[in-house]
Amino acid sequence: MTTISQSEAARRAGLSRAAIQKNIATGKIKADGGKVDLASFDEWLALRQEMQPDLQPVAAKAARGGSSAPPVGEQAAYAPGEHIPLEAMSRAEAARLREVYKAQTARLEYDQKAARVVEVELIARAVGDEYARVRSSLLAIPAEHAPTLARCKGAAELRERLETLIARALEKLTLDGEDAASRLQGRV
Prior knowledge:
The chain has helices spanning 6-13, 17-25, 38-51, 57-63, 91-113, 120-150, 155-187, and strands spanning 3-5, 31-32, 35-37. By secondary structure, the chain is mainly α. The chain has a 3-stranded antiparallel β-sheet. It is elongated. The model is unreliable at 55-76 (pLDDT under 50).
């Protein structure tokens, strides 16, 4: 039985040692005395890469100086989970790839309906609105409270008064933020 260290398995999978240990503990990867069984690890990694394929393997390969397709007339050997150009794909590989993508699309649609994922634009807009409210609220403090701040007798009193005003403004925004979160949930 060929083995590798947990650190080497983590490096090959692009994960932490803790993630490898978790998969060993759940029985997804076999190990013997702290060493990972290479055959079990390769099988697990291939399954993992099939379920979570690299989003841009061609770009990554090109960045390393490689080509996305083999030279004409040569048969390329592709690693499990590596992007195979369409022209080099067999009918069975193409069918399997289509089924994987259909399953991933179905999972994404389910997650969207179950409100487990939301559109980035929606979150960006909500965060932008909240930042604008925080900025406006904090910038309004000097204009609204200048007369009372001018009556402060010293730096310590002025600082205490400003801290109180800022704390109130932030507390109000926190309470308003909870309302905004519930509004956001209603939009999803």
